[in-house]
Specification:
Helix content is 53%, strand content 1%. By secondary structure, the protein is mainly alpha-helical. The protein has a domain of 268 residues. The protein starts with a helix and ends in a 5-residue tail after the last helix.
Length: 536
């Protein structure tokens, strides 16, 4: 791997030395080693673009259902016997990693069981200094990724290096982050060596994730709640950046089940709420472009596990069905209590929650994400009504009344002036693109408006992209947050020049990041986007 490091001089010299405490406890010598392990400097990353179009990871789409004794510690009176089973996409037979070593106290994995990757420090630096810029529009180091994910990965590396015990959840997160960083390096350097390494790290993360889920619900617990949830969110991130929507769906559902069974009925620290917000933001956007069956076996499994647990009474609807509000304009002014605000995972209920963290993490008001959730829910009521024999659908009058109420809220939505960081022109520009994309999404999903009538809004999204200087290295900040409005608007663009503008932005984002997250959409025709679930 030393040759790879020499060939790919890929790490910016600047390094943010912020180290925040995590929930993982290690010996004093481990903590001391963590403070000194990242002092070496690296050279800057070349900007060559590598289209990873030949990635074909985990070709089989058959779900692997594991129903063994992973939930043996659960109270049988509180949980359905099948609630502990989990679904995991099958593994590529050519890249299986041996993770037969048990996880948790008394059987933790040590350096003797797992070789410390020689490129780990470099990849963690690249992830922190380059990849994380994609996820947030902010330039500070107080995001969930900086204060939770990165410190946890560093602690894991330190423990492996010093031969200390570590659980499978931490190893899953660790190898997942290495995989994302290596995929980025592969794209930036056009290196097949990095691509192969990224695939290996991804497979290791998946195997440790599988082992983690086998004991995730055990009592006593073998890994902390935050560690397991961070690992699941990392697997979501890995599958998203590699363009594997089947795996993304799988990990989202496992994360949802874990949150609902282990996270919503507990006192939530700020760190836990940060993780819940990270999950919900990405999940709602995923749901907005989801075109497969909402009654898949995996979704039904998660729904049954939660409903039979007795915990669903305090939560939002798991099927993204419309709530019972009648006067949305008034309900939007209602102040939510702490329990409702924290447990309304997918934003079903209207109202104002002052403790929301979406503006702090993603730079967007909760209202924007809530309205996307409402559009998803109303669209599903519409789909249900169109099915033969549907008996619980809204009447046409009720449907139109709710559609008009949502439309008014979309038109009235304004940038929250109480949030200081909204003065940032880049954040304001991002919000403008998101608001226009939300309008496009609403009119296409609910009214099925002809795309020709939406071109003004499509062009507004394009104009927001043009305000970003493509040659400016800072343009990468928050690029992943612009992907949803870009795909929504690009899929409805009818003008070839506007279409070319969107393709150019995607190409530029791919060149700067090296990730298939952007490159996979370049110049794809509308039919391909529609077939793959990115338009309506």
């Amino acid at each position: 791997m030393a040759d790879v490091i020499d060939d790919v001089q890929a790490i910016p010299q600047h390094y943010d030395e912020l180290m925040c405490a995590t929930s993982t406890s290690f010996s004093p010598r481990t903590q001391q080693w963590i403070d000194t392990m990242f002092e070496s400097s690296m050279q800057e990353t070349p900007s060559a673009f590598f289209e990873i179009s030949d990635i074909a990871l985990d070709g089989s789409r058959i779900e692997e259902i594991i129903d063994d004794s992973m939930m043996s510690g659960l109270d049988s009176s509180a949980y359905h016997p099948d609630a502990g089973s989990f679904h995991f996409p099958s593994c590529s037979p050519n890249t299986l990693i041996n993770t037969s070593v048990g996880c948790g106290p008394g059987s933790g994995i040590t350096a003797a069981d797992n070789t410390v990757p020689s490129d780990a420090v470099m990849l963690l630096k690249h992830y922190q200094t380059a990849v994380l810029q994609l996820l947030t529009p902010f330039r500070h180091s107080k995001t969930p990724w900086h204060v939770l994910f990165i410190p946890h990965a560093k602690n894991c590396l330190a423990a492996l290096t010093l031969g200390e015990s570590i659980d499978c959840a931490s190893l899953c997160l660790f190898y997942g982050i290495l995989a994302i960083s290596a995929f980025s390096m592969a794209g930036l350097s056009q290196s097949s060596i990095w691509l192969d390494q990224a695939r290996r790290y991804k497979q290791q993360a998946r195997e440790f994730g599988k082992s983690m889920l086998k004991s995730a619900y055990n009592i006593p617990k073998r890994a902390k709640y935050k560690s397991i949830l961070m690992a699941l969110l990392t697997l979501v991130q890995v599958s998203m950046v590699t363009g594997n929507r089947d795996q993304t769906e799988c990990y989202f559902l496992e994360a949802e089940k874990f949150i609902r069974l282990r996270g919503l009925n507990r006192k939530k620290s700020r760190k836990v709420r940060l993780l819940h917000h990270c999950y919900a933001f990405e999940r709602i956007l995923h749901e907005s472009t989801f075109v497969e069956s909402i009654n898949s076996s995996h979704r039904l499994h998660v729904r049954e596990a939660v409903e039979t647990s007795g915990l669903a009474i305090f939560q939002d609807n798991m099927s993204f069905r419309l709530g019972t509000w009648s006067d949305l304009d008034q309900d939007m002014k209602r102040v939510k209590g702490q329990e409702e605000g924290e447990n309304d995972l997918h934003l079903e209920y209207p109202g104002v929650w002052s403790a929301t963290l979406y503006p702090e993490i993603f730079g967007v008001p909760e209202t924007w994400l809530f309205l996307i959730s409402l559009v998803i829910r109303l669209a599903r009521e519409k789909d249900t009504a169109q099915q033969a024999g549907a008996s619980d659908d809204l009447s046409a009058k009720d449907f139109l009344g709710r559609a008009k109420a949502i439309e008014r809220c979309i038109k009235q939505m304004r940038q929250p002036r109480s949030i200081d960081h909204c003065a940032d022109p880049a954040v304001e520009n991002m919000l403008d693109a998101m608001r226009n994309a939300l309008s496009i999404y609403f009119y296409r999903k609910i009214y099925d408006l002809d795309p020709s009538l939406l071109q003004q809004r499509v062009e507004r999204v394009r104009d927001c992209l043009l305000k970003c200087n493509p040659t400016d290295s800072s343009a990468v900040y928050g690029s992943a947050r612009l992907l949803w409005p870009v795909l929504i608007a690009a899929s409805e663009a009818t003008n070839p020049e506007v279409q070319a503008s969107f393709a150019l932005w995607l190409k530029g984002a791919a060149e700067r990041s090296g990730l298939r997250l952007f490159g996979g959409y370049i110049e794809q025709p509308r039919a391909d986007l529609e077939r793959e679930g990115h338009v309506f």
